[in-house]
């Protein structure tokens, strides 16, 4: 049974399917951890700790979850291993509720009174950043929003061309100056165009050169400053895209990008092709930055707004 009724049946089925590899891997490990055991004792908790860490939940978040279970075992005196699934489910849901991840009741809604709403998208090359921008544009466009895209990843010709293709596919304008041009000038012109045509949202792609962190920091700061000439609050959102299939490497990227710029939301992609979906739990907990979108398939509608209760429900669904 779903914990929230916000999802359509189709979306829920897509989420269930997208988390299948993670779920199957998690439960097979968990099954091995408790085989022959009847109560949740210290040995079982050690095994559960290993299962969570090997599912890319992360060490710090795993320690928190184990501590919560220990407190319940101490309070309830006797806890059978047959109850472990339910307890884990409840404690992970509670942990996600304690951080800043807020369930989105209205899919792909934009804040009222801000127009254009400016989203700057950051992330290393290869995480699905440009594809995520294209899918976001499609979702907004489908809901009747006027969208402008800015091809600010001028370091890679492929990124500029890819965004143009998405623009044609979705039917939204793409502001591009080509390769090796000033990304802040692209951002400025994109916000200018959005303002002129009364667009609801403008999404700016940026370069993902993490190995030159100081240059990246300076570049992102300059893009922000230039956009603010048009809209003083821009960007209203800095969306960091992470590849969920990279597991712990996604933590490292999140750490580096949160140092380079003020990240306000996360999108975690490629969860359907990996058994490392536990990374969503860890990243959500460790960075206290809302996970806003998750990618659970290749189709446009497989980019979903993140609902923590539905996620936990799918994660533990047998």
From TrEMBL:
Keyword Coiled coil: no
Membrane topology: Peripheral membrane protein
Pfam families: SRP54, SRP54_N
Signal peptide per UniProt: none
Keywords tagged on the record: Cell inner membrane, Cell membrane, Cytoplasm, GTP-binding, Hydrolase, Membrane, Nucleotide-binding, Receptor
Residues covered by the SRP54-type proteins GTP-binding domain: 290-303
Database matches in SUPFAM superfamilies: Domain of the SRP/SRP receptor G-proteins, P-loop containing nucleoside triphosphate hydrolases
Top enzyme class: hydrolase
GO biological process: SRP-dependent cotranslational protein targeting to membrane
Compartments reported by the entry: Cell inner membrane; Cytoplasm; Cell membrane
Residues the record lists as binding GTP: 123-130, 205-209, 269-272
Principal subcellular localisation of the protein: membrane
Domain of life of the source: Bacteria
EC number(s) from the headed UniProt entry: 3.6.5.4
GO molecular function: GTP binding; GTPase activity; signal recognition particle binding
One GO cellular component term: cytoplasm
Subunit note: Part of the signal recognition particle protein translocation system, which is composed of SRP and FtsY.
Family: Belongs to the GTP-binding SRP family. FtsY subfamily.
Function per UniProt: Involved in targeting and insertion of nascent membrane proteins into the cytoplasmic membrane. Acts as a receptor for the complex formed by the signal recognition particle (SRP) and the ribosome-nascent chain (RNC).
Name used for this protein in its record: Signal recognition particle receptor FtsY
Species of origin: Spirosoma linguale (strain ATCC 33905 / DSM 74 / LMG 10896 / Claus 1)
Lineage: Bacteria, Pseudomonadati, Bacteroidota, Cytophagia, Cytophagales
């Amino acid at each position: 049974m779903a914990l929230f009724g916000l999802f359509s049946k189709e979306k829920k089925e897509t989420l269930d399917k997208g988390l299948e590899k993670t779920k199957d891997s998690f439960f097979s490990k968990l099954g091995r951890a408790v085989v022959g055991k009847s109560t949740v004792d210290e040995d079982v908790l050690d095994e559960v700790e290993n299962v969570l860490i090997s599912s890319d939940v992360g060490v710090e978040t795993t320690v928190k979850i184990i501590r919560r279970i220990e407190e319940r075992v101490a309070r309830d005196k006797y806890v059978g291993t047959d109850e472990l699934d339910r307890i884990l489910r409840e404690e992970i849901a509670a942990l996600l509720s304690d951080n800043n991840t807020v369930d989105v009741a209205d899919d792909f809604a934009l804040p009222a009174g801000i127009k254009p709403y400016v989203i700057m998208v950051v992330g290393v090359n290869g995480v699905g950043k440009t594809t995520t921008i294209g899918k976001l544009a499609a979702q907004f466009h489908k809901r009747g929003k006027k969208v402008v895209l800015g091809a600010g990843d001028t370091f890679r010709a492929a990124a500029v061309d890819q965004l143009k293709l998405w623009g044609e596919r979705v039917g939204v304008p793409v502001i591009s100056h080509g390769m090796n041009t000033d990304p802040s000038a692209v951002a400025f012109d994109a916000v200018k165009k959005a303002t002129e045509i009364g667009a609801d949202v403008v999404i700016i792609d940026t370069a993902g050169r993490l190995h030159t962190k100081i240059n990246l920091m300076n570049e992102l700061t300059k893009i922000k400053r230039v956009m603010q000439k048009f809209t003083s609050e821009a960007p209203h959102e800095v969306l960091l895209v992470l590849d969920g299939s990279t597991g712990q490497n996604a933590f490292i990227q999140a750490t580096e990008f949160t140092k380079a710029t003020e990240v306000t939301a996360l999108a975690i992609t490629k969860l359907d092709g990996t058994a490392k979906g536990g990374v969503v739990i860890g990243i959500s907990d460790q960075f206290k930055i809302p996970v806003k979108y998750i990618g659970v398939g290749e189709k446009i509608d497989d980019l979903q707004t993140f609902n923590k209760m539905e996620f936990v429900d799918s994660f533990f669904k047998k």
